[in-house]
Structures are given as structure tokens and as C-alpha cells.
Amino acid sequence: MPEQQVYDPYRLIDDVEGLLIQRGHAPVRLDGRTGDRVAGASRLLRGLGIDPLRAPGDALDLDGQIAYQSRVHGD
Amino acid sequence: MKHIHAGKVRDLYEIDGDILLVASDRVSVYDVSLPTPIPDKGALLNQLSAWWFEKMADVVPNHVVSTTDVPAEFAGRAMRCKPLKMIQVECIARGYLTGLGMREYQRDGKVSGVELPAGLVEADKLPEPIFTPTTKISDTGHDEFMTFADVVNEIGQETADRIRDLTLEVYTKGAEHAAKNGIIIADTKIEFGFDADGVLTLGDEVLTSDSSRFWPADEYQPGRTQHAFDKQFVRDWSTTTGWDKTPPGPAIPAEIVEATRKRYTEVYERITGNTWIPGGGHA
């Protein structure tokens, strides 16, 4: 069985943005479209046989879950 | 041992192929880490999380390797874990309507695409817990709620179904246990990943007062904002200082530190049934 390959979809978004800028485009990360970007990056990776997953150091919130607290409760 | 990342309240190390999650005594309020630690907070949250992981072991496998096979300097406040490949969805279960969910409900009558009955008020208990996933830290700096269809698009139907069902099961089981001990768990956030064998695994921390919202059941009153069980002393005190909620945060007076430590201890003891021994242990 081939070894599982993984890549962080958020990193792929950064990569693609950089590539587009290199090629003379001016990509803009629109608010409210994060889901589209991450879903698109994830589907591209899966289509390339790579699982869209993240390393713990990138994924875990080590700041006291502040993002969750503020996102869910607004404080 | 390699230090990978220092967060505001936890640190991450790599150790012999495992990861080491180390909880500190630092406390943050309104997104600002305060300069005064709360003694035992790190150990209390770490051991509460370890207790929950064990309790949920029949629901879902978890990433814990050991809470004792850790470097002596971190004893009691560290968890040695399997390094997972993490799913990029934050899994939130809510049993009560509050905060931004309330605002979304007032605007649309639903939260994360889940339709709710009309007439609910702040802090109302929902007819049944709902799954309200969000994106990970957004690439624009603004986190966004997702619908379940968005999750399916990102990670596929099978995994999306499983993380939704597991999130609701962990929340429901945890909330039922806490309720018997006078604590309402209003909502919680959990994380999943895949281990080296491809097994879907519960990671990060689970049902702590950082990753969940705990309310004292004896003070619960729908229609108003509820008080957090443990951080409320610090929050209330900080609002009396004139602090503008931007860094640097003010030093916390000794009596507030002690009151807050007692509340964290009370949460741990009520939920686990163990007696906490100050300094980092339980009887």
C-alpha cells in the first residue's frame, strides 16, 4: 500500500496565491469565502491523491482556545 | 525534546516521535494573556482533559499515549500524545443558544444552517444539541461558520458524517455527566485527526473550560448572559480596573488569583469526583 501523502490545504492556498502574484495577478482573499478556498484546496489535493490534513503544530490552538471563545461567544 | 510552538496558554513539544502538550498556568481574558499565573490551572485543565479522554474512550479513540511518561519538569500538566494528521474543521457542538450563535439565530432563525424553533432567548436550551462547525483560523483572520454541506465539500461525506456524530455524542455524554454535578456545558469545541493507521481519533483537549463554556447550574437563568464558571472572577475584576482590554494586561491581585484557582479546582472536583491536592495531583 502506498504511503499516505498529506498536505495542509491552508498552505496550498498560500502557495497558489504566491504563484498567482508571481504571474502578475492580484488575488484577493474575500471575507466570507474561506470555506470556498479551503474546500477547493482540499478537493484539489484529494484529486491528486493527497489527503488535505494538517500537522498538530499548525492545527492546534495553544492560545487558550481564544478563537473558539471569541467566535462562539463574542468575547 | 524539541519545542515546536509556544502558545498563550499551552506549549507543544516533539519527543521521541510523539508530541507533548504542556498546559501552563497562564490565563487570558479578552484575548490578552495576563501577567499573573493562576497556580495549578495548567495541571487542573490537563488532568480534567485526561479524565474526559478516558471517559470517552468507548465513544472514540483518542490521541493520549500517557499522562505520566512525561519529562519531570512538566509532571502533572503535560500529556504525551500520538501526532495526528489533523482535520481542518473545528467541531463545535452546542446545547444552548448564546453569543454569536444567538446573533445568527436572531438574523436568520438558524445557526450554521441548522433551523431552530422561533422564540428562543439568550441562553435557552436547544431542543437537541446541534453541530455548528467552523473553519480553522481563517486565512483572512475572520473565522467563519460553515454549514454541514461545506464540511462535506472539504472532507468528504463519510468523514463529515462521522465527525458530526462523534462531536454530538461526546458533547451529549459530557453535558449529561456535568449536569449531574451542577455544571452546564453550554457548548464545546473538539478536534479530530487520523493516526498513523488511518484511524479517526479525538485529539487536542476535550471538555475543559478553555475548550467549552461551563455555567453554574444553580445560577442558570435563560434570557440573560450567563457567567462562566471559572474565569468570571478575572473577567469581572478586569472590568473594574479601567483596563482597555488591549495588551499588556494588568497584574491580578492575590485574592482574585485564589478565588479563580478555587473555581478551576471546583470544576475539576465536581466533574471527576476526585479531590485535588494543591500543587498538582489528586487523591
TrEMBL record, chain A:
Superkingdom classification of source: Bacteria
The protein's name in its UniProt record: Uncharacterized protein
